[in-house]
Write a structure and sequence with these properties.
With 228 residues, this protein is an alpha/beta fold. It has helices spanning 13-21, 52-59, 86-90, 106-114, 118-123, 167-178, 195-201, 210-213, 218-226; strands at 3-9, 29-35, 72-78, 96-100, 125-130, 148-152, 183-187, 205-208.
Length: 228
């Protein structure tokens, strides 16, 4: 059965609550896309200043993220040098955190991964995303320190509903050949047409945004993708 991860992109805490509510009792984990307005043009929760009051209450443990008792969260950090804000993001309670290779400074990021506390490694899965134009050799310094790779299925990241970039198929095949045991996620333009060819190329986790959020029956649509 294919692992399906729903993905949402929200502008503020209220929209986060609204969109997460759609997945309660349907799935166990939701990816939240986080954009800083620098690495990608878009800016999303929790990077807006207007959300600081709600964010601070979560950091102070006065409240959790919406539906935190029913859902786990995967943060996709489209953020410049996100590792420098690692403490902030971990305090929001994710189960998985994804860094983008192109957004990180290589030496600093490698040192960060090597020095991660064992408790963090045991409780938070670390993923590394790469764009369709990035060669997989760039992963070499980091591959032994991450739990999975996320390939982007689109060229312009940070937005939903973007066109599929077929270069990702070659990237997945090369990754599967070089790292046969690694978990490979794909995020971006995953739908009923692209999902089968992504799985055939070697992906084993599909991150799906628009195709789920815009479906009439999210639960049934997830089941259909799981059976591919």
């Amino acid at each position: 059965m294919t692992e399906i991860t729903p993905a949402i992109l929200v502008k503020d805490f209220n929209e986060l609550n609204e969109k997460l509510a759609k997945f309660v009792n349907i799935t166990n984990l939701v990816q939240i896309d986080i954009c800083d307005g620098r690495f990608v043009p878009n800016t999303s929760w929790p990077m807006h200043q207007r959300d600081r009051e709600n964010i601070q209450s979560v950091l102070n443990e006065e409240q959790g993220l919406p539906f935190w008792e029913q859902l786990d969260f995967e943060f996709d950090l489209m953020v410049i040098n996100a590792h420098k804000q690692f403490d902030f993001f971990t305090r929001l309670g994710p189960k998985r955190i994804i860094f983008h290779l192109e957004a990180e400074t290589e030496d600093d990021f490698k040192e960060f991964l090597e020095s991660l506390d064992p408790y963090i490694k045991d409780n938070i899965e670390i993923g590394l995303a790469l764009n369709t134009t990035t060669h997989i050799d760039k992963l070499q310094p980091f591959i032994n320190h991450v739990d999975f790779i996320q390939c982007m299925g689109i060229e312009r990241i940070g937005f939903q509903g973007e066109p599929f970039d077929e270069k990702v198929l070659i990237q997945i095949k090369d990754l599967r050949k070089k790292y046969p045991e690694i978990k490979i996620s794909v995020d971006g333009s995953v739908n009923e047409n692209t999902a089968p060819i992504l799985l055939e190329a070697g992906a084993n986790r599909l991150v799906i945004g628009s195709a789920l959020v815009n479906s009439y029956d999210i639960g049934e649509t997830i089941k259909e993708f799981e059976l591919l």
